[in-house]
Amino acid sequence: MDYPEGEFVISTSRVLPAKRWQVLRLFTKVEDYPGYLPEIKECRVLSRSRTEAVTLWKVEMGKVPISWQEKDTLDIHQSNIDLRRAAIRFKAIDGDLEKFEGYWAFQEHKLGGTEVFFKAAIKIGIPILEQAMGGFLSEKILHYFERLLTVFEEILTAQNYEQRGARHVHPVGGFGVIGHPYNYQHLIHYFQSSKKDMHLPSPEFLTKLFELTPSYVSYDINEFHARSGKSTYGSFIACNIIPEMLTADISKVIDKVVESCKVAEKLGLGIVALGGFTSIAGERGGDEFLKRIHVPVTTGNTLTAALAVEGVLKAAELRELDLSKAKVAVIGGAGDIGSACVRALAEKTAEIIVTSRSDENLARVRKMLEGYPAKFSGMKDNNEAVRDADIVIAAASVAHSIVDIANFKSGAIICDIGYPKNIAYSDTDRRDILIFAGGICSLPQEFNAGFDIGLPSPKVLYGCFSEAIVLALEERYENFSWGKGHITKEKMAEILKLARKHGFELAPFFWGRRLVTDEEVRGIRIKT
What we know:
Blueprint: E1 7-16, H1 20-28, E2 40-48, E3 52-61, E4 64-76, E5 86-95, E6 99-108, E7 114-123, H2 127-162, E8 173-179, H3 184-192, H4 203-212, E9 216-225, E10 231-238, H5 244-248, H6 250-266, E11 269-274, H7 277-291, E12 297-298, H8 301-318, E13 327-331, H9 336-346, E14 351-355, H10 359-368, E15 375-379, H11 382-386, E16 391-394, E17 413-416, E18 434-437, E19 440-442, E20 460-462, H12 463-473, H13 489-501, E21 505-506, E22 509-511, E23 514-516, H14 518-522
Parallel strand pairs: 8-10, 8-11, 11-12, 13-14, 13-16, 14-15, 16-17, 17-18
Antiparallel strand pairs: 1-7, 2-3, 3-4, 4-5, 5-6, 6-7, 9-10, 19-20, 19-21, 22-23
């Protein structure tokens, strides 16, 4: 389309998570605008009637100060209650620009919320400057209005989560699970799931392109039915990180996790589970991370730890192992899940060995276990720690295995609870030990993430993801598992009880993708 000489037209749109009347009320309270963006130096209402207002604006756009007076007209085509078709038309009647006029239009979006359309025509009115600066100034003005929409989106999202029980608020409910490939090879496998004969570019190109791709919904779970008769819904959200990025730039990874949570917020999800390394990044962000999002988050560590302990106790019973005489080694036992397992088993066993790379962490665990019956030892050498252990819990989340399977004691029970599950999926011909993937549970229905998430069956799911689904079924939208050291025995019992209520049970023993029956566990022979 051709426009008059020297005139520039800009436009943008955004779906805001609120009803039309809420959005319109926010837009018309122009006296609040100076608190939204630092560029808005002044905004005053000079006169106002039911459908019209004259306002004075002083705004700095791209370091260019612009002031004007405009006439705003509220154009409502239906009743004041429905507001089925509404627009705010504005036109500068005095000021620095020869022409500045356009409209905001508000339309119900088919997927929920209100789609806001903005369009404006701009003309400086000085031909020489229009040629040199018209495009630049128009771009800055467009950026200003896009930022304003982002602020409105944040305000309305916060209102939704603060007032989710209120009558007119945009619905909030269901669950989100945030996941990521567990290493570069898994990333390749992920891409090849959509195209098996895909040409593979260089690792440098692929990882960078993956990193720059925004978080997105990879799969929707439209209905998830629990054994209790309740149902919920959710989405699997892909967070485009791989574990190696945590050591390269943790702030960038935290930004990616925030971005994934924003995807959940746009969907109005009630709670999200931070899976894998996204929980590590989120908790490293601490309170500042929580301030950047509105949706409640859970690491799922409480249910994960509870399932791991339950799996170990079941295996010990099948092996007829006397726990009161058993030696337990917990690799990564100073972490959130590891320390919860340490506390739970220190009440039942003779000795607890905890490994950590930090002397400070080992000292903290030693202090934590004061008063427990189990003898405590702290080590930095994982292989040394497991040599005489009857039970090993591998709770460290690392990209590569940090223990040699050859060092496990004959007859040992090894629960691999880390992500990725390097030990459970390692190649070995040993059959005198039990290795199983811990912290996973059987589901009341199959779960499909849209691609391979590293589990042996669609009938089982990681405890961290399962916790979010259970909480959504309970409509408990809260930061249930958050912060190191907050996993108590009482909370573990509570989430297990809720999980069982809805049909989430301890998963069978899986060694990699192979199902290990209870009879096989009983039949393990110790080498002498």
